[in-house]
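re: ur question from earlier - yeah i can do the single chain one, its not a big deal. heres the input i used so u can compare w yours
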Amino acid sequence: MSILKDLKQQYLMGGVTEKLIYWNIGLFAIPMIFSGILFLFGINFNYIHYVSLSSNPMDLLWKPWSILFYAFFFMPAFFIFYLI
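and the output i got, formated as tokens:
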């Protein structure tokens, strides 16, 4: 089996904790890769602005997803290994 098939099988067979780990890795890695590709083409896109949690409560009306995704984007990458 390929690595991708193994990961899919582990995701489908895994519990809630393992699924959250996969989501956490995906939500952390995909924007980093996307930002790196844009940087190579000279495009400056600050995605942190869109997912950061603001101290202004009115900003939550325009960015309600920031409450949910704040923990995924601002957790150190090595912390994922503590979850496994």
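The helical segments are 3-13, 16-40, 48-51, 59-62, 66-73, 80-83. not sure if urs matches, ping me
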